[in-house]
Amino acid sequence: MADVAFEATAKTLAQLCEQAALAVTNTMVKDLKSIKHRVSKEISLKAPDAEKLLFSFLEELIYLKDAELLLFSKFEIGVKEAKGGFELAAMCYGEKLDMKKHELLVDVKAVTMHHYEVKQSKSGWFARIILDI
Amino acid sequence: MDLEEGVISPGGIGFDINCGMRLVTTNLTEKEVRPKLKELVDLLFKTVPAGVGSSGIIKATPAQFRDISVDGAKWCIDQGYGWKEDLERTEEDGAIKGADPAKVSDRAIKRGLTQVGTLGSGNHYLEIQVAREENVADKKVAQVFGITEPDQVVVMFHCGSRGFGHQVASDYLQTFLNVMESKYGIRILDRELACAPFNSKEGQDYFAAMKCAINMSFANRQVILHRIREAFEKVFKRDSEDMEMRQVYDVAHNTAKIEEHHVNGKRRKVLVHRKGATRAFGPGREEVPQLYRKVGQPVIIGGSMETGSYLLVGTKEGMDLAFGTTAHGSGRTMSRTKAKKMFRGDRLQKEMEQRGIYVKSVSFSGLAEEAGPAYKDIDEVIETTHQAGLSSKVVKFVPIGNVKG
Fold first, then answer.
1. Residue B333's pLDDT is what?
2. Which H or E run contains B77?
3. Any CB–CB contact under 8 A between A1 and chain B?
4. A-chain residues within 8 Å CB-CB of B170?
5. How confident is the model over B229-259, as pLDDT tens digits?
6. With respect to CATH, is domain B7-331+375-404 assigned 3.90.1860.10?
7. Cβ contact, residue pair A4, B336, below 8 Å
8. Which pLDDT score, from 0 to 100, does residue B362 have?
9. Is residue B250 within 8 angstroms of chain A, CB to CB?
10. Do A104 and B362 touch (CB under 8 A)?
11. CB A81 within 8 A of CB A14
12. Neighbours of B347 (CB within 10 A)
């Protein structure tokens, strides 16, 4: 009950990653528009399946929030199937966290495995994520 | 868990490893503090960073951070952040043995590097409270714990291992997921409770890494205590020793520890996972500091920012009932989403101020999520705990000032 849960849907896996990433940022900052695109960061990941891919991507964003105090509000993401699973390449745009500029909400500790799901259907992709805050 | 045949589970401990509570007394009364309360809370809001991405005064190098993960609160005392007696009044004397920074990822260290001395957010807080005479349930034990005067002002705070602990837990959750079934044939329903045999390489590696996070959290709370003493000194223009700002105790409530307990009539060493649960050892246990051993371990249970918190004492009965364990808080009645819909942070702040509680929060939204009705009635929870024999009431504290992330 003290966690935050959301569901994301999108046509492609890349778009799903983008939507989920925006949701994670939005959990921490009230207005995504307040995060300007002063900094860009490249993230490249490989994973054996879509579930692990999204999980690792969101984990990386949470890591950057603490290690480099970076928050992102725009993502350009490409996902392709590769040998052994999936590859993700993302360009993330944002800036350093600033209490005066960004209305901060709650700190995200981690993505949990609790009810975590990523699945594909005829209409597209779906993810259920519960964040530990 | 049996040490030979049992498992260890990061999810069974919690992502905020050694999230815990620390309580400090003063010899100030409410009457002395009230005129300077706003100034004090505003200063604490500045000097004890809270909220997303907050960084503390310790600018540790990775090597120093590794030292902190082994020496815990002792590292802080050696650097001048606290009093030697604080260690004795901390669970595990402020540093649990067996921490191995080699078992911790560089990512975890990078996440935690600047966070020693920070509160975090969510249900983490720093609160100035008063022990009213009518709220002292056990005068004898209260005296032993340092609650000696009517309307005595105390400070209680709640926080953990921040990004460092979260990353350690996340890292090992993935490690365990990769080996749990394939290597050890363990199947579970909820992947969040992934585990490995305690006696396995992965299990022992996590145990050593978890201890690093436990120690970092003790260090975190030690630095915060130092900042609280500094703030009181600045506002009241007196030495913190003169104001007798003594630590009562520091308890952890997300850990796994090897302890000796009676199981089916025999004394055995077992691994006890406590997640959102406080150790509450009774009188006579060697783990309880010498100065408290006759009465039992101080137990700190937090309520909501509107209602108050409790100091209790561990009982002999509780050792047999629940491996010497009790609650860590009152528990929520509603989700954060529902609380945000029902309450407005700015309105809540004004209402609380009218009722004599001055709260400063990084986020109004976060404040709404922590509204009193979002939590169960602490008095009922404590009464139940007391009646069940898990721990015994000593004193209730009422809040007058609060800092929230």
1. 87
2. helix B62-78
3. yes
4. 59, 110-111
5. 999 999 999 999 999 999 999 999 899 999 9
6. yes
7. yes
8. 85
9. no
10. yes
11. no
12. 13
Side chain identity, residue B59:
K
Q: What is the pLDDT of residues A42-97, one digit of tens each?
A: 999 999 999 999 999 999 999 999 999 999 999 999 999 998 899 999 999 999 99
Domains by residue range for chain A, with CATH: 4-132 (3.55.10.10)
Domain range annotation of chain B: 7-331+375-404
β-bridge pairing B247-252 and B277-279: unpaired
The CA distances from residue B340 to B120, B334, B348, in Å, are 19, 10, 11
Could you tell me the pTM of the whole model? 0.96
CB B243 within 8 A of CB B184: no
β-pairing verdict for A124-132 and A4-10: antiparallel
Furthest-apart CA atoms within chain B: distance in Å: 64
Asked if A107 is an interface residue toward chain B (Cβ–Cβ < 8 A), one would say: yes
pLDDT tens digits, one per residue of B128-157: 999 999 999 999 999 999 999 999 999 999
User: What pLDDT sits at residue B125?
Assistant: 92
Is B53 in Cβ contact with A97 (below 8 Å)?
yes
A99·B362 Cβ contact <8 A:
yes
Output Rg (C-alpha) for chain A, integer angstroms.
Answer: 14
Rounded CA-CA distance B260/B270 in Å is 6
